[in-house]
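seq as requested:
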Amino acid sequence: MKIFLTPLFLLTLATVILTGCNSGRNTITVGLKIELTGIERAGDGTVQVTWRVFNPNLASYLLSQTSHRIYLNGTLVGKTVDADPMGVPAQLSSSKTSKLLVADPAAERFLRDALAADSAIYRVESLITVRLDGENTDRSSLTNSGTVPVTGK
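struct tokens:
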């Protein structure tokens, strides 16, 4: 019986240690949330997306790069890419406006429909790069959804 229990104990211990070390969740950015606060189409046809990062944590963050894939009513309408650093204070939020790179002509139609309705249901898939110290960074994926106002000038 003792011969059987020792390998079983070692196997269980190894499983607990390995799963504890690789939880699959990025602990650096736990709690961060990105939401869209507005989409605005200018007279020249360009589209600006205003978004906000909520930070409920006790630590401040420096986002060195962000990109967002934006879906309206379930359809990908475009993406934004920002390489300008953005500070996010502890237990506060920061906002930014980015240019939307429209995915294709069909996405233009969905944007016009959202503009006519004054709002749309959105899903945003974000990839953020957090500057830790010096050259060390951490990349995280965040997803959120909600309703966003869509306006035109």
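Residues 18-24 have pLDDT under 50 and may be disordered.
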